[in-house]
Amino acid sequence: MGARSVDVYFPEAPWFDYYTGDKLPSTWNKSYATVAAPLSTIPLFIRGGYILPEQAPATTTTKSARQFVLTLSVFVNSRLNPFGLIIALDEQGEASGSLFWDDGDSVDTIEKENYFLAKYTYSKE
């Protein structure tokens, strides 16, 4: 039998539920809170002040992989899926984040400067 709840420590900051986007109670700041942890869902929270890139997953990162369903072949390539941004604001209404992106196959991409680095900032003003 697994635990159905966990005690989580939340440092002082606004916190948001990853799945719903709901802001967590400020009374949880600088304290432990018992949160639900069903076997089907990992408890995941975002600290205010950060921007997280997200992309829908797929079976593989390469174009040549195939997923066979009955008699249909479907190309499944996560690197072709669109990106989104999750913006979790801090108390000042600001957030920042970054995305490092390379081709997914090459080695030494940093040394060869063969990558893309995006830095994001957001301010309500």
From TrEMBL:
InterPro entries: Glyco_hydro_31_C (IPR048395), Glyco_hydro_b (IPR013780)
Pfam families per record: Glyco_hydro_31_3rd
Span of domain Glycosyl hydrolase family 31 C-terminal: 3-52
SUPFAM superfamilies listed in its UniProt record: Glycosyl hydrolase domain
GO molecular function terms attached to this record: alpha-1,4-glucosidase activity
Protein name (record): Glycosyl hydrolase family 31 C-terminal domain-containing protein
Organism: Mycteria americana (Wood stork)
